[in-house]
Structures are given as structure tokens and as C-alpha cells.
Description:
The chain has two helices and seven strands; from the N terminus they run ααβββββββ. With 203 residues, the protein is mostly beta strands. Strand 5 and strand 6 form a beta hairpin. The protein is globular, with a radius of gyration of 17 Å. Helix content is 8%, strand content 14%. It has helices at 3-9, 15-23; strands at 26-29, 52-55, 107-109, 133-135, 182-183, 189-195, 198-202. A three-stranded antiparallel β-sheet has the order 5-6-7, with no helix packed on it.
Amino acid sequence: IKPTKIAEINNKADPTTEIIANIIEKIILTYLDTSKVKTMNSMFSGCRSLTSLEVNSGLFNVAYVQDFAYLFTNCQKLQNIPFVLKQTQPNVKDMSYMFTNCSSLTSIDLKQFNTNQCTKMTELFSGCESAKYIEVNGLDTSGLFDMKGFFKDCKSVASLDISTFNTANVDDMKILNKNLKAVDKKGVIISYELSDKGLMLTG
């Protein structure tokens, strides 16, 4: 599949392409070279039936991508993400709504994600209602000013460690949701409180 075809599929002004996005179950990007790509905004957004995604790890390079916003938004049947999370992204600035409504993902691992230049993570995991494990320990949040709805409707999360979060610069502190219960590895429910220093853990 060529990059132009991806752009056409994500053209929301054309109802035909939206229908195509809705029925796609598998995407194979064997020959797609993304080594110079700077934005992947909405690349797979709206692929509601997508269950499988295959890429050539040698060609699918995200090192220069600055914008991951809406990348997998509404990929409701996607059960795993085989590529992006295993690479470093020193240039990423916007991850807003990246996994919003990925309701079939059972685990998300961002521990290798380089976010030292990222400023926006609005509703990053919103609607990930099947995710039992969300690995964000070590995620650099020091430059963020928007984390609204960060874990909104993450109803199934069984393990969560945000002890390394730095939210001193975040304007909107509504990052947790009433549907989220954070439980440590020993099964102890962790409570949170917000202070002028940011997000604090209270055991």
C-alpha cells in the first residue's frame, strides 16, 4: 500500500473512503518507507474493523515523526500494536487521542517511548476499556501541559505505576477518571491526590 492510498483512506470529506476504512480487517505495509515522515496524524484512525497490522520493521521508521495524534483512534478491534511502541521517538510532540477508543487492546507498553519533547497527551488512553496493563513507568511527562482524560474509561486496568510522573507543568489536572481503579502488583488499591506540585501518590 502506498502512502498516497493511506492519505486517501483518511480523507474524512469523502464518505467512500470512510466506508473503506470501516471494513478493512488487515493492513500489510511491507514496502512502506517512513524514514522521512514527520506526521502520522490519523493514519489508521477510523479503521473500526482492523484486527491485524503488519509492517516491515526495517522500513517503518518513526524516528522523525513529530505528530502521533489520533494515530489509532477508533481502531476498536485492534488487539496489538506491533511496531511503534518498540522504537524510540525523540521528536514526538503530540500524542493526543493516540489510542482513544482502542477498546480491544489488552496491554499497552510505552516504557521505551521517548517523550522528552512531547507537550500534549490529551485522552491518550481514553476508552481503552479492555486494557489490563498500561506500562507508563519512566514516561517523561515533564514537558506536558495537557493530560486531560489521560486514563478516561480505562475500566479493566489491573496494574498501573505512575510514580515517575512529573505533572508540574500540566494545566488541566483531570487526568484520572472515576472508572479507573489503580492497583499495584500486590493487589493494593493506590489512591491519588493533586497538589500544587502535581500528581502525588498516596499509598
